[in-house]
Design goal:
The chain is α+β, with helices and mostly antiparallel strands and 515 residues long. The chain contains 20 helices and 13 strands. The strands form 4 sheets. A 5-stranded antiparallel sheet has the order 9-8-7-6-10.
């Protein structure tokens, strides 16, 4: 039911995300930045360089890159502790992009005589309003330089004047293709479409509705195409059409979420709104990707199972289910790591954390790891196959299922015993199912008044029965007078039934005895 709801309401998280506060997803980044109370930049050039490079990476990244955010906020010095520091950083970055293409060489470095007084000012007028002046004041704070607090207080008023203006031409040329086309499209719209209504502009709301409609339409088209391809492919391989076409819905959802993420820059949302929608689309993309990969694994394993059923070796029948579970576990881990990277932005840190965490888990789950190595032992050494009758220590039964942690045996009295796979490392495994012959060893008692000639004739007669029996081994059998028992002369009978089946062994043993 859950996959079906995702298919029908795939766009719901995207619309709902607009109502989620930006700090709900960016709290970690904001908290990291707010700790930078002392400026660490050595001169104004390093201040503006760190701010621009940090904000450029932060706003364009699909992840919440807390390290870049902290780098940008560190240029605020003691003002980085103000509650609206994140909002000010985003607005200042937007103001500078609408004012001029920043030339880093204009800003002085350490030792420049212009900054000996501990203060330096950069001023520019935006092309859209020549009478307006954007003034950045840098001051020395402690052992470094930072933006002065008074400059940050003016950012909100600058942003209100310039927010509807496009970036300057030099910066616009540096924008990605979709961003450039969005500004060209917006500038061609009438003023009524550019008016703001509940957070977004009117044309942006219409753009969201169009993307939703386009997504639903694309889903239908992709589902139809995949269904036809699955129908054709199912006729060429021994897989039913339902299994082959099981990934059409998740694949359609995957394509729609990918298209939405790719076209989202066309809406020109504010960075905080853009990042929330980008995260929502990324989450849906991750769910759809894992779901699609699951269904593809089902198709591949169904094909392998059909091939395995045609072979006499039962080992591949045991290997296919293990392969299916292994692939699905790996897919789930990749999906969880991707979602975590959307939240933190530190993909390498997550992988490193998993590596360190795996050590702790290893000590806590020692028995489980031993069972896992036992599974590898079963797969590599092949001590048995499905259906073999084995004895592991005091446990005997037919192999019914091999899993990651344990193996299930069906006993002779039809109970099911679960044996940890680590037992196959530390215990001897006696595989009765691997026998090509089943031995019969018994004693035939004759009365003491039986003369020697009849004893010889009896033994030869039993040997002839073995030679004529259709299921006995003819090159290895023994029938001899063996010893004198308490009440009889004992004749030893030892031969082999040519069969690997327990039921056939009992039937042929009975037939020989009756003969």
């Amino acid at each position: 039911m859950m996959p079906d709801l995702l298919r029908r309401w795939w766009f719901a998280p995207l619309l709902f995300a607009l109502c989620v506060p930006a700090h709900a997803l960016q709290g970690e980044a904001g908290a990291a930045g707010s700790t930078a109370a002392v400026a660490s930049q050595s001169d104004p050039r390093e201040v503006i360089s760190d701010f621009l490079s940090g904000m450029k990476t932060y706003t364009r990244s699909e992840f919440l890159d807390s390290s870049q955010h902290q780098r940008a906020l560190s240029t605020f010095g003691s003002s980085s502790q103000r509650k609206d520091a994140e909002k000010v950083a985003l607005e200042l970055y937007a103001v500078l992009n609408r004012t001029a293409l920043i030339d880093i060489e204009e800003f002085p470095t350490a030792g420049d005589p212009d900054i000996t007084a501990g203060r330096w000012v950069w001023a520019k007028s935006p092309p859209s309003d020549p009478d307006m002046e954007i003034e950045l004041v840098f001051t020395k704070q402690g052992g470094g330089w930072a933006f002065v607090g008074g400059t940050l207080d003016k950012v909100a008023s600058w942003y209100q004047v310039l927010k509807d203006q496009p970036p300057v031409g030099e910066f616009l040329d540096d924008l990605p293709f979709l961003d450039r086309k969005r500004w060209e499209f917006r500038n061609s719209l009438p003023q009524g479409m550019r008016d703001q209504a509940f957070i977004l502009e009117n044309w942006q709301w219409l753009g969201i509705l169009f993307l939703v409609f386009f997504g639903v339409l694309a889903e239908r088209v992709v589902t139809l195409i995949v269904s036809r391809l699955a129908r054709r492919a199912a006729g060429r391989v021994s897989i039913d059409e339902e299994t082959f076409g099981s990934f059409k819905r998740p694949f359609a959802l995957l394509m729609v979420s990918a298209i939405f993420r790719w076209t989202l820059p066309l809406l020109g949302l504010e960075p905080e709104h853009h990042r929330i929608l980008l995260f929502a689309a990324g989450f849906v993309l991750a769910v759809a990707g894992v779901w699609t990969a699951y269904r593809i694994v089902d198709v591949i394993c169904a094909y392998l199972s059909s091939k395995a059923s045609m072979t006499e070796n039962t080992f591949d029948d045991m290997l296919v289910p293990l392969l299916e579970r292994t692939l699905k576990i790996l897919i789930t881990i990749v999906g969880l790591v991707y979602v975590a990277s959307l939240l933190s932005g530190d993909l390498y840190g997550i992988i490193a954390g998993l590596s360190i965490g795996s050590l702790a888990v290893g000590f806590a789950a020692k028995d489980s790891i031993e069972n896992l190595f036992g599974t590898f032992t079963v797969l590599l050494d092949k001590p048995f196959a499905l259906g073999d009758y084995v004895a592991v220590g005091s446990v005997e039964g037919s192999i019914e299922k091999v899993g990651f942690r344990s193996t299930r045996l069906r006993t002779g009295y039809n109970s099911l015993i679960t044996v940890p796979n680590s037992r196959f490392i530390n215990s001897d495994v006696d595989n009765y199912g691997a026998r090509a012959y089943r031995r019969i060893k018994t004693t035939l008692g004759l009365t003491y008044d039986t003369p020697p000639t009849k004893l010889e004739a009896f033994c030869e007669g039993v040997r002839e029965l073995i030679r004529r029996h259709p299921h006995t081994r003819k090159d290895s059998f023994h029938v001899y007078v063996h010893e004198f028992g308490p009440n009889s002369i004992d004749v030893m009978l030892q031969c082999h039934i040519v069969t690997t089946d327990r039921s056939t062994e009992l039937q042929e043993r009975e037939r020989l005895y009756l003969d």
